[in-house]
Amino acid sequence: MSFCFASSFFLPALLSLLLLVVFYTPGAAAGSAGFMASPKAAAEAQSLLQMLRAMEYGGVDLLERIEADLATAFQSVPKNTYGRIDILSTRYLLQLYFAKERGWQLKGLEPHGFLEEVSEIHEVALLQEQAPALAAVLSEATAPTTAVSSPGRNGFTLRDVAAIAATLERLVRDESLDLLEASYHANKLSPSDAISAEDMHEVLCTFLMLFELWDQVDVDHPARTGKFEELTRVHGMGLEHIVDFEQEAFYNDAFARRSRKNPFVAAQYTREDAVRIVESLVGSYGRWQNQECAYMSDQLHLFSKQGHFPLQSFSSAQMQELGFEFTESLQYLEDVGALDPATKDVRLANYITGPSNCIPASKYFSICCMSECDAITHEIMAKIQGPEASAREILGVVSNISSRYVEGPRQLSRSLVRQLEALSERHEGSVQLHSRLFAQWLHNAFPSDCPYPHIVEDQKVLKTDYWKDALSSTSTAESPEVRLERIANSTREARQVYAAHNESLESFLSDGQDILYLDSRAASRRSASKSPNNILDNLFQNFKNFPMIEEGLGR
Question: Which one of 3, 16, 354, 453 has the fewest beta carbons within 10 angstroms of its own beta carbon?
Fold first, then answer.
């Protein structure tokens, strides 16, 4: 395992994870000989400690930034008696962070689909292949244990979750460096040479093209890859959108570092400069790509009523003129919850956030459309600051929220008020924020922003690869004509019937079971021994024989 992913960002608080990557032997019990406390290992750890401590005081703030991004959501999830969270809540926060802040869907961290059995953190493909020892440690956190560690040492802290997120983010960005190397070679340039601004633009644009076409080009043989113009010609892609994005990142970086440049000398750019800009491109690519998602959503919203639009809209002349080509089958729409079974209309929010609108960016993750609902739930979390609240408190918060398609403040309908009050009665006077019926209530309150909480039969239908493989191996995509023939109930009358049905309290409470995917009351009673902290305690105990390690820890 190389140290490259820790070379520039991690802080001392991440030491626990890094040491485990270096020293932990999968399968060894905590405190056993599996922790290799050799003098050579201790020296390597000391070197790593010095690097991390220097970075903490050098102003590097990746971990602090991620902590700040996660803080509101962390407040809202259930805690155990030690104020920490369990592995399920940790998975939820990681999935939410990458979806909301990056537009990434990591393989192994797909949406849970309201299933009890979902993939675990240690099953994330990126960790399994690039940091297997860390995956093994997180697997230990998932397995039941009989021993309970000392008070205050059970569960995951905010810093723990941020550290895992930082590790994953670092691994994703480091993986992109292979594409950067290929981009240099494709333009017949050497990464070891300083290059002109014009050449740097070519390298960065080629990188973005490879990033979009990673599964269609031969990155392992850069000579076959082709320059930027050749790639765009062969694959028929436009230049303008990539050039605009690349130039924005390039000039933002140049402005931030203007004090370090001599204005009277033509600038030369090193590989270090390229790496820095590429990391910015990868980190912001999802939010930039989401502009197209938002545009498509706005166009489909023109056809919608209460967040549902007729399936015929897919094949309308207006959408075709705008350049949208919809090929999803009815089977796909049904499986991911985008098709309303009562009216055969399409749920806008479910369709936009579905896997067909994800772009595979590597074998480890995809870039997906961002959910407008994430901003709504974030605002609710910020006001409530806990996993549950009274119906009155939530109504006061929600009535003042503005979204992409709803303008606040507003007077919520009587039916929405009754639904939420009934939901609180189900849970002893409090509404559980992390429940399926509350997610459904949000869909009713923000029908075009928040997806309907469909219970999938199998989590695989929410994975990008599943539908990519299925559509490429069999011709499941239907033509607009066949699609229209099969839609007999998509009429104004059916939609009116649905609207009346959806407004009723009985419909809301009987529409599927209420699943508490993060149960606040259960969390407060849970012993929470499923955490890596007892392993970390034993690890530090093993290193106490090495004074320089103990001194480096500053304990």
Answer: 3
Instruction: Please report how the helices 15-23 and 158-186 are oriented relative to each other, as an axis angle in degrees rounded to 10.
Output: 70
Cα–Cα dist 255/198, whole Å: 17
429 burial via Cβ count (<10 Å: 0-12, 13-18, 19+) = exposed
User: Cα separation of 386 and 286, whole Å?
Assistant: 29
* The pair of three-digit structure tokens given for residue 465, joined into one six-digit string: 């690869």
Give the residue with greater pLDDT, 79 vs 155: 79
Mean pLDDT for 267-293 is 93
Q: What is the DSSP string of 207-237?
A: HHHHHHTTTTS-TTSGGGT--HHHHHHHHT-
* Residue for token pair 């609710």: 380
Q: Which residues contact 466 (CB under 8 A, 6 or more apart)?
A: 355, 460
pLDDT score at 266: 83
Least confident stretch, 195-204, 218-227, 248-257, 472-481? 472-481
With vertex at residue 76, the alpha carbon angle to CA 74 and CA 78, rounded to the nearest 5 degrees, is: 90
- C-beta of residue 1 within 8 angstroms of C-beta of residue 133: yes
Encoding tokens for residue 521?
């009351």
pLDDT tens profile 323-354 = 787 888 888 889 889 999 888 899 999 999 99
**Rounded to an integer, what distance in angstroms lies between the CA atom of residue 548 and that of residue 553?**
9
The closest of 364, 362, 314, 365 to 338, measured between CA atoms, is 314
| Structure-block tokens of residue 44 | 């390597």
User: In 107-197, at which residue ranges do the beta strands (DSSP E only) sit?
Assistant: none
Rg (CA), the chain: 25
Its pTM stands at: 0.76
Query: Does residue 548 have a pLDDT over 90?
Result: no
Give the DSSP H or E segment for 17.
Answer: helix 15-23
Amino acid present at 297: S
| Integer CA distances (angstroms), 360 to 186, 270, 355, 453, in order | 22, 29, 10, 24
The CA-based angle 161-68-1, given to 5 degrees, is 40
Sign of CA dihedral 533, 539, 543, 549: negative
Among 551, 102, 56, smallest CA distance to 366 is for: 102
Going 269 to 273 to 275 to 277, the CA torsion angle's sign is: negative
**Can you read off the two tokens belonging to residue 236?**
């028929």
